[in-house]
Design a protein that fits this description.
The complex is a heterotrimer of chains A (372), B (98) and C (473). In chain A, strands 1, 2, 8, 9, 10, 11, 16 and 17 form an 8-stranded mixed sheet that branches. Chain A is 33% helix and 24% strand. Chain A folds into 3 domains: 185 residues, FAD/NAD(P)-binding domain, CATH 3.50.50.60; 56 residues, no CATH class; 81 residues, D-Amino Acid Oxidase, subunit A, domain 2 (D-Amino Acid Oxidase, Chain A, domain 2). In chain A, strand 1, helix 1 and strand 2 form a beta-alpha-beta unit. Chain C is α/β, with parallel strands linked by helices. Chain C has 17 helices and 23 strands. In chain C, helix 4 packs across helix 7, helix 5 runs antiparallel to helix 11 and helix 13 crosses helix 15. The chains are: A alpha+beta (372), B mainly beta (98), C alpha/beta (473). Chains in contact: A-B, A-C, B-C. Strand 15 of chain A pairs antiparallel with strand 23 of chain C.
Chain lengths: 372, 98, 473
């Protein structure tokens, strides 16, 4: 058991959300201590698809749409800084993104959604594509597809290298990474918080709970509500292929190494991160339906990733009123929002005024709905 | 690197490796035929372009990946030679024809 | 089409063949799935369709397999050959690819008999063309009648290394040297097991005879080699070895490496079976009861895949597994199973008596389990041991994190060639036991399958679990 560690701010959970915030805090002169679990944990960050996706997000939630767009706009500079600081290239690309629709119903639905989004959130751009336009953008797409949509705000990155870069960055900027999770208790003690970890105790003036699916219990100890639940997405990855697809699509993207990532599902199966033959077949079928020339490409791995889902799919950011200095941050788009987590959100946690969108993400919004 | 022992095989098949025609004993794997033919490599790696030859001969190491009859990334140690087979070295990542 | 079998056996090596034969003898509808064109696994590879005019030089142990194969063929068990099993589910659904077509088999019980693989032998330069696993050299003899035509050096430790040297010498190959990495510590430790090993005299005598024949043929035997490097630019030209503190070089055209065999765990890992670390054999093995039942109902393991026992014991364990399958599926009473099992269990004890001695003597030296920084540990993605150690410094606690951060283990072999090494490197870097550090998470497909074949696969919808699975006893 190590002696109690004292620090100005503790970040509970070193996944994409916690690591981005900690990186931002370290960049602002604080000395965050990130407490992370070990090699085998739910780790939504390891299952992430890697999209930086604006298209379709935040319909009915304008703040979410704007927050997502902001992140996408500043992501490029964020990636450059990460590379300058750590030497890790997270393969950020922003060529825009494509939705490829496989049937008419899907196409109609998408067209309607995007139209409503552009009315709701000024500045949101997109373009509907008929089959000819679609094939002009992506040669080899099936001729039987009804169409799709292009959005210039979208992009992608390597989620694993992003996490690696953030971890390196935290350390280089003076923070600490402690793989001594899980944190079993957070006890407010008036002047700060006492955390009990696997290896000992940690005392922090402030604490940020970013523990993904583990946030619920910990958040309640500091007067916060984290109504998160798991939602499984199955993903397939193929052998490496020479580059042919620059544009990421919602269900298929080609990584910088050349492998293809295919998705996905939305399943309510509790904490089961396994895969099913039916889903694997369905994902493969969709890919081959859209890109017939992919039928000879080999799948090498499949996995289930447990998204950290909230009741409306948008993030939760909260500062505890009962226990000043305790914060909560959670979302399922850890890659998309990494830039805003590292910059404006970290600034808020460090003491700056909250970005205008942040108040909209309080968990209070769920209580209001229940009351109504 | 390898030579055949006096053996009981009677048949031979003709195949091509990177366009070069070769007569090889039937019943063996493509990987074995490549080794018997004395090729310097069966593929180059995706990361650094380094040459490789088969390592384990039992389907575990994936170092024997070759293009066989137009299909890239086949484990050559698991494919038996056939008359008229067209074999090519796997140069790095496989390609695609959209 | 999904078919329902009583027993699906994955792997047609000694354990799989014996289990399938016994299962069929007991009236079970049995199927065997194997990757090769003919059965026999690796140890009896090529027996049925041998390209050799005179396979006798391979030794009498090889011929043993003929009896086993005859019994198997006599039962007329269905065998699906040239096929890769890429998934087994806890519901006993087996996904098979054959000639780019996917088929899902259903069984009431699945026996994993995929045997062993060679332990990875990461030394600097081991990825050079012309460096191969010793077992590969043996497979080339059995399955393709090929022997080296230049200078061969064998390096490492283990009975297989001596067997290959002996076979090569008898076949007229030019074996320049045997660079043996057995440590003095291991020799001393093995001596403690010698009394028990003397209870297995035929194994000891065979071993001594092999070594004598090889040395008499002029093969230089260098002992207590503490370092190895394969040298060359585009292919291996020489091997450097350290012995008594001095590095020397031997020119060679072929370098065969060996550090023993370990269970092939891809399927049991992907299934989520429980595994335990075996400190004597320095590898993981699935947790099994005396009958080969794994931690998952309906899933059993037999042969070297459950822990290294050798070909004969593997065969007997296969027979036991066949009896157990019949018992669990209701066609054999426990009493009758126990009666039939007794002589098998005695055979197993007899043929595993030598194991503690062999495991101790041939325990791989630390430098080959956790190699120098510049050594490539992940052959597919070309990640070095040094990079893995750097990630440990960064805070990575295990192989899944290092994999995520470096691609080490993400290539086509999906960790088969690097899993043990990475776990050992991390254990050393973190000063923690290997069993605590853990191993790669293995996921399906455990062999690649094309998107087209998967998309076209016929998958019946199972409304409920009504396959008539075996009931717990």
């Amino acid at each position: 058991m190590s002696a109690t560690i004292n620090c100005d701010i503790a970040v509970v959970g070193g996944g994409l959300v916690g690591a981005a915030i900690a990186y931002g805090l370290a960049g602002r002169g604080l000395k965050p201590v990130v407490v992370d679990e070990g090699d085998v944990a739910y780790r939504a960050s390891r299952g992430n698809f890697g999209l930086i996706w604006v298209q379709g997000k935040g319909l009915g939630f304008d703040a979410y749409a704007r927050w997502t767009r902001l992140s996408s706009e500043i992501w490029g500079d964020f990636a450059q800084e990460l590379q300058d600081v750590t030497g890790v290239d997270v393969a950020h690309r922003r060529p825009g993104g494509l939705e490829v629709c496989v049937d008419d119903a899907e196409y109609q639905e998408r067209a309607e959604e995007l139209h409503r989004l552009s009315e709701q959130t000024p500045g949101f751009e997109y373009e509907l594509l008929d089959p000819a336009a679609l094939r002009a953008l992506v040669p080899g797409l099936s001729e039987a597809l009804p169409g799709g949509a292009y959005c210039p705000h979208d992009g992608h990155a390597n989620p694993l290298y992003l996490l690696r870069a953030l971890h390196e960055g935290i350390t280089r900027k003076g923070g600490r990474y402690l793989p001594e999770g899980p944190v079993s208790a957070i006890t407010p003690d008036g002047a700060g918080f006492a955390l009990t970890t696997r290896a000992g105790r940690l005392r922090a003036e402030r604490v940020v709970v970013t523990a993904g699916l583990g946030s619920k219990a910990l958040a309640s100890e500091v007067g916060l509500d984290a109504p998160v639940y798991p939602n499984r997405g199955q993903i397939l990855v193929t052998e490496r292929v020479t580059p042919f697809l620059e544009l990421p699509t919602a269900y298929l993207r080609q990584t910088a190494e050349g492998s293809l990532q295919l998705g996905d599902t939305h399943e309510d199966v509790g904490l089961d991160d396994g895969t099913t033959s039916a889903a694997m077949k369905a994902i493969a079928a969709r890919a081959v339906k859209s890109f017939p020339f992919l039928e000879s490409v080999r799948l090498v791995r499949a996995w289930g990733a447990l998204r950290v889902m909230t009741p409306d799919g948008a993030p939760i950011y909260d500062a505890s009123e009962r226990h000043s200095g305790a914060f909560l941050a959670t979302c399922h788009s850890g890659v998309t929002l990494a830039a805003v987590h590292a910059i404006p959100l970290a600034a808020w946690i460090a003491g700056a005024d909250p970005p205008p969108e942040v108040r909209s993400f309080s968990a209070e919004r769920f209580h209001v709905q229940t009351a109504a | 690197m390898f030579k055949p022992l006096p053996d009981s095989r009677s048949g031979c098949v003709t195949l091509t490796i990177d366009g070069q025609s070769l007569s090889v004993f039937e019943g063996q794997s493509v990987a074995a035929a490549v080794l018997a033919a004395g090729l310097a490599s069966c593929r180059t790696t995706v990361v650094s372009g380094s040459p490789r030859l088969p390592y384990c001969m039992m389907g575990l190491c994936f170092d024997c990946l070759m293009e066989i009859d137009g299909v890239p990334n086949c484990q050559a140690c698991l494919v038996e030679v056939r008359e008229g087979m067209v074999v090519r070295r796997q140069q790095g990542r496989r390609g695609l024809q959209p | 089409m999904t078919d329902l079998y009583d027993l699906a056996v994955v792997g047609a090596g000694p354990a799989g063949l014996a289990a399938a034969t016994t299962g069929a003898e007991q009236g079970l509808r049995t199927v065997v799935i194997d990757e090769q064109a003919s059965p026999g696994g690796q140890i009896y590879r090529g027996l049925e369709r041998s390209p050799l005019a005179e396979p006798g030089f391979l030794g009498p142990d090889y011929q043993r397999g003929a009896v086993l194969l005859e019994r198997f063929r006599a039962q007329d068990v269905e065998i699906i050959d040239r096929s890769s099993v890429w998934q087994v589910t806890p519901e006993c659904e087996v996904a098979v690819t054959r000639e780019d077509r996917v088929r899902f088999l259903r069984a009431r019980r699945v026996l994993i008999a995929t045997g062993a693989q060679e332990r990875p032998c990461p030394i600097p330069g081991w990825t050079l063309p012309g460096v191969m696993a010793a077992g590969a050299g043996q497979i080339l003899m059995k399955a393709a009648a090929l022997v080296p035509d230049g200078r061969v050096v064998l390096a490492g430790a283990g009975p297989l290394l001596w067997l290959v040297a002996w076979q090569y010498v008898r076949a007229g190959a030019h074996v320049v040297a045997m660079l043996e990495t057995v440590t003095n510590t291991a020799r001393r430790a093995a001596l403690r097991h010698l009394p028990r090993a003397i209870g297995a005299p035929d194994y000891l005598i065979k071993g001594i005879e092999l070594m004598r024949t090889v040395r008499r043929a002029g093969v230089r035997h260098v002992t207590t080699v503490t370092g190895l490097r394969a040298l060359g630019d585009e292919n291996v030209k020489a091997v450097a070895y350290c012995n008594g503190g001095t590095w020397r070089e031997l020119t060679c055209d072929l370098l065969l490496l060996h550090q023993g065999v370990v269970p092939n765990l891809q399927i049991t890992r992907a299934l989520g079976c429980a595994h335990d670390w075996d400190q004597a054999q320095l590898c993981w093995r699935p947790r099994l009861d005396a009958w080969g039942n794994s931690s998952l109902p309906g899933i059993a393991v037999a042969g070297d895949g459950g822990g290294i026992v050798g070909a004969i014991a593997a065969e007997k364990r296969g027979e036991l597994a066949g009896l157990e399958a019949a018992h669990r599926l209701g066609t054999l009473s426990a009493a009758k199973r126990d009666r039939l099992a007794k002589p098998l269990q005695a055979e197993i004890r007899r043929h595993t008596r030598i194991r503690p001695f062999l495991d101790a003597l041939y325990r791989p030296a630390a430098v080959f389990r956790s190699p120098p920084d510049e050594t490539i540990v992940c052959r597919c993605e070309e990640v070095t041991a040094g990079e893995v150690r750097h990630l440990a410094d960064l805070g990575c606690q295990g192989p899944n994190q290092t994999k995520a951060f470096s691609r080490c283990g993400m290539g086509p072999c999906q960790g088969r060639m690097c899993s043990l090494t990475v776990s050992e490197v991390l254990a050393e870097a973190l000063s923690r036991p290997v069993e605590e550090v853990g191993a790669y998470r293995v996921r399906p497909p455990i062999k690649p399958v094309t998107l087209g074949a998967l998309a076209a696969a016929d998958l019946e919808e199972f409304a409920s679990d009504d396959h008539g699975h075996e009931q717990p006893p």
